[in-house]
Design brief:
The chain is mainly alpha-helical. Helices cover 80% and strands 0% of the residues.
Length: 150
């Protein structure tokens, strides 16, 4: 992996970890120095592990593609339809659900586990199919099965 990519991934991990630590205040309130030190160490450890760097680099690339596709979709929806489309249940609940499914599939694919999971589920494995259907049903219920007042 080129040196510039490693630097960019280090900066990405550092900023994300630092932001999470600042927002969650896990290490205490007003502890920017400690948060930055922990983020620095985690970023350096991350860059040292080549397999993790490769996975995140692939995920960032595919996530950028997905963000562009979603942005274009929403842009076209804004041009074609009036403002009431933003209040549609699909936009409020379905789109985040699709994004979650995309992220799960992306993580499985970039980590190299997609073929294993897919083969396990599609074989004559009844338990695997039942678990897959239960996960899909749980995701559908979580997205659409909330209070009817929403």
């Amino acid at each position: 992996m080129p040196f510039v990519q490693e630097i960019l991934l280090f900066v990405l991990v550092f900023v994300v970890i630092f932001a999470i630590l600042q927002k969650s205040k896990v290490l205490g309130d007003g502890k920017k120095q400690i948060d930055s030190l922990v983020a620095l160490v985690m970023g350096l450890i991350f860059v040292a592990v080549a397999s993790a760097t490769g996975i995140v680099f692939q995920m960032v690339a595919w996530t950028a593609v997905a963000v562009v596709v979603i942005l274009l979709f929403l842009l076209l929806m804004g041009f074609v339809l009036d403002d009431k489309w933003k209040e549609n249940n699909f936009v409020k609940k379905g789109l985040p659900g699709l994004i979650i499914v995309f992220i799960v599939i992306l993580v499985l694919y970039t980590a190299g586990w997609w073929d294993t999971v897919w083969n396990w589920v599609t074989q004559d494995n009844v338990v695997g199919t039942i678990i897959l259907l239960a996960v899909i049903g749980g995701a559908v219920w979580a997205v659409w099965g909330t209070k009817s007042g929403d």
